[in-house]
C-alpha cells in the first residue's frame, strides 16, 4: 500500500512522464488537430461564397464550382484527418501501455516490485488507453480550437467574435467549478466501485469457506452495503454529468442564437445600436458556420472525461510502486533454502476479521511442496506472502531459519496466466534475465518444452500483449522458461496446469522435474498428477 496519497499534481506529472517517449507522435497529433480547424475554416469559406453567389446571380455551375469544391474538399479532408488522428492516438496509447507494462514486469521479475500484485497492476494499465487515445487529444483541442475559431471570426466580424468570447467566459468559469465537484465525486465513485469489486471477487474466491462456516448472511450484507454505496455515488456523478451537459448545451445554443440574431438584424439594418462594422451576407454565413464549431471540442472533451477519471484512479494505484514504503534490502540466497511457515495466518485488507490459516509446514531444501485445498481456501494468498504481497496477520515465515525481509530476487514466480508483452518471443523470455546468454536461452527453451514453438516460429516471432496465437500450454511454458532463466533457488508456481486440456497438461508435467531440479519448490494445485510430483502435500482448509 502507498505510504501517502498521490496529489493531483503528482498524477498529472506521471501521466506526462509516461507519454514523453511518444513526444514526436504527440506533436503530430496536435498538428492534426490544428489542421482540423483549418478544414472548418475552409468549409465556412466555401459555404459563405456559395450562398453569396447563388444569391447575387442565377444558378450557374461555373460560378459556384470553387465554393462547392472547397466545401466538399474540406469535408473529405476532415474525415481523413479524423480517421488518421484516431489511429495515431490509439497507437500512442498502446505504445505507452506497452512501455509501462514492460517496466512493471522488469521490476517485478528483478524483485523490486511485489510479483504477487503483478496481475492487478498489469490490468490497471488497460485503464489508461482511453486517456491517451481520446481524452488527451480532446483536451488539447478544447484548449486551442475555440481560441483559433474566435480569432478567425474576429478577422471577418469583430462584433461576432466578441459575442462568442462573451459566451465563453461564464461557460469556462461554470465548467471549472463543475469540474472540481465532478472530479471529487468521480473519485469517490471509483473508490466505492473498487471496494465493491475487490469485496465481490474475494467473496466468490472464498465461497467454500463462507459456506463451511455458515457466514453467508453476514457476507451478503457486506456486499449489499458496498453495492448501495456504489449506487449512491453513481447517482451523484450522473447528477453532475447532467448539469454539466445542460450548461454546455445552453451556452452552445446561446452563442449560436446571439450570432444568428445579430447577423439577421444587421443584414436587415434593424439593429437598435451602431456597430463598427458593415456585415455582408457572405460574412454572416461565414461566422454562422464557425460558431457551432467553437463548442464542438468541449462536447468531445465532455464525452471523454470519464476516460480521464478512470486513468487517474489507475495511475494512483500504479504510482504506489514508487510511493510505497521503502523495501528492505534484498537478501541473496546461496542455494535452495528451507522455507518454514510457522502458524501463518493471512486475510484481506478490507475485512481483517476474515482470515486464512493458521498454516504450518516446512518446505525442505531442494524438495517440492504442494498446497492443496478447495478453491478460495487461500493457497495463492499464502504463496504471495513470500513475494511481499499481502497481510501477515499472525505467525512468521522463516527462510533458512531467519525471518524473511525481501527475498524476491531469489524467487522464480509462475502465475496462473503468465503475462505476455508485445514484442518478440526472445524479449518475453529475457524479461527474467536481460543479460542471459544464448546458451542459457537455448537451455531454458529446451527444458521448458518450447522447442516446437521456437522451431515453428523462431525466437524473433512477434507476440502481442494478449498472447494471441499462443495456446494455454505455450503460455505456461513461457512462464517456466522465464523462471529457469532467473535461476532462483526458490520457485513458486500458482496452478501451473490449470485450464489446460489433458494433452497440454501432460506436456507441462513432463518438463516440470527438470525445472524443479536444485530448487525449493512450493506450488498450489488441484491436479492429482501434479501433486504426485511433490514430496509432501499441505492441505489448506
Please give a quick description of this structure:
The chain contains 17 helices and 11 strands.
Task: Explain what you see.
The structure is a single chain. By secondary structure, this protein is of the alpha/beta class. It has 2 domains: 8-323, ABC transporter type 1, transmembrane domain (ABC transporter transmembrane region fold, Up-down Bundle); 339-539, 3-Layer(aba) Sandwich (Rossmann fold), CATH 3.40.50. It has 17 helices and 11 strands. Strands 6-9-10-3-11 form a 5-stranded parallel β-sheet, with helices on both faces. It has a 4-stranded antiparallel β-sheet with strand order 2-1-4-5, with helices on one face. Strands 7-8 form a two-stranded antiparallel sheet. Strand 9, helix 16 and strand 10 (520-524) form a beta-alpha-beta unit. Helix 2 (23-56) runs parallel beside helix 5 (129-156), helix 5 packs antiparallel against helix 9 (281-318) and helix 6 runs parallel beside helix 9. The longest helix is centred in the middle third of the chain and has 53 residues, at 216-268. It is elongated, with a radius of gyration of 31 Å. The two termini are 27 Å apart. Residues 323-330 have low confidence and may be disordered.
